[in-house]
Amino acid sequence: MVDTPFANAPLVPATNDAAPLLDVRGLSVSFGHGPAAVRLVDNVSFAVGAGERVALVGESGSGKSVTAQALMRLNPHMQVSGVVQIGGCNLVALSDKEMTAERGASIGMVFQDPMSSLDPLMTIGDQVAETLRLRGVSAAAARARALRVLDELRVDRAAERLAAYPHEFSGGMRQRVVIAMALIGEPKVLIADEPTTALDVRVQERVLDLLYSVSKERGLAVLLITHDMGIVAGFADRVMVMYAGRIIEQNDVEPLFASPRHPYTQGLLGAIPRIDQKREQLQSIPGAPPTPFTRPPGCHFNPRCAMAMEICRKDYPAMIETGSARVACHIHGGGHA
Ligand SMILES: Nc1ncnc2c1ncn2[C@@H]1O[C@H](COP(=O)(O)OP(=O)(O)OP(=O)(O)O)[C@@H](O)[C@H]1O
Ligand SMILES: [Mg+2]
């Protein structure tokens, strides 16, 4: 054995900085039982690292919110399978009681409409502090933490405002409060489902800027759900594109915008309004996405795809990896999944 100055040092497990904070493998979500069961999300795999911001995009009905709810296990009627690993713990395998403890502690969530997450009859201070109070933290300590988080989210005069009620706050301020509620338990992962859609553009930018700096400062893994490709470009490091319950393309944000590979992603990016285009020249993807009941065989996008080949109508394409990109499309050589 080589004698090194560290020979007698205690063995410390090697830390792997590259290990993702949130590691989702083969996540599927169904409703109903037996022949009536319908699969809303199908075999979704992705990872988000510490301090990384990943956007989940796709048209309405593609399964973005169902994915988020499944990660948080918010809907008891959903049948969730696969692995959702956070810090060595598989959330899918936890009992309901254990999962209740994980919510807010390892994973937090912010929804689109802040009013739906706020109790109109409870003060802002009590609501922000509630997660800590439920964990047995004293009222004074919880209040101090609430103040600190509200300060971090640049809520002015936070000390005075702890006694206010939600209706006394503007939409942007309410959304900051909801973000504070999600962050006070110091989760490692934050899921934000269209967190700024209800806000006007300027307020939207400010809230996203805050979320961006908080994720950098805290090393928080953020999964941002949006259908706004403009927001994606300014906020995310990486993008996942969802179609009919599956992720069909993933890439770092720059190469995704510069060279989208999947015809669906190309269509989505073509549908971003550009200032230099007249209204009638705006492109959009022809046709409508299928519902979970009407997904066609083969690649689910094939009826809308101008490049569809025979195989696209038969076999679902496998996800292939080239460089930072992953794409499930026969044009790119994806064999049968
Ligand atoms: N509780 C539920 N029970 C049954 N089906 C549901 C439920 N929630 C959503 N769905 C269905 O699952 C599919 C995916 O819905 P989801 O809400 O995840 O879409 P989304 O991508 O979040 O869309 P949007 O951009 O409109 O928010 C849709 O067809 C929807 O009708
Ligand atoms: Mg949604």
Polypeptide structure, described:
It is a single chain. Strands 6-7-8-3-9-10-12-11 form an eight-stranded mixed sheet, with helices on both faces. Strands 2-1-4-5 form a four-stranded antiparallel sheet, covered by helices on one side. It is built from eleven helices and twelve strands. Helix content is 30%, strand content 20%. Strand 4 (79-86) and strand 5 form a beta hairpin. The site of adenosine-5'-triphosphate has 14 residues, from helix 1. Adenosine-5'-triphosphate (ATP) is lined by residues 31, 40, 58, 60-66, 75, 227, 291-292.
Principal-axis shape: globular
**What ligand molecules are bound, each kind once?**
adenosine-5'-triphosphate, magnesium ion
Strand content: 15-25%
Summed up, the helix count is 11
CATH topology tier name of the largest domain: Rossmann fold
Low-confidence stretches: 1-16
Give the biggest beta sheet: 8 strands, mixed
CATH class of the largest domain reads Alpha Beta
Class by alpha and beta content: alpha/beta
Helix and strand arrangement:
Blueprint: E1 22-31, E2 38-48, E3 53-57, H1 64-72, E4 79-86, E5 89-90, H2 96-102, E6 107-110, H3 114-117, H4 124-134, H5 139-152, H6 158-161, H7 171-183, E7 189-193, H8 201-218, E8 221-225, H9 229-235, E9 238-243, E10 246-252, H10 253-258, H11 263-270, E11 320-322, E12 325-327
Parallel strand pairs: 3-8, 3-9, 6-7, 7-8
Antiparallel strand pairs: 1-2, 1-4, 4-5, 9-10, 10-12, 11-12
The structure holds adenosine-5'-triphosphate and magnesium ion.
Residues 31, 40, 58, 60-66, 75, 227, 291-292 line the site of adenosine-5'-triphosphate.
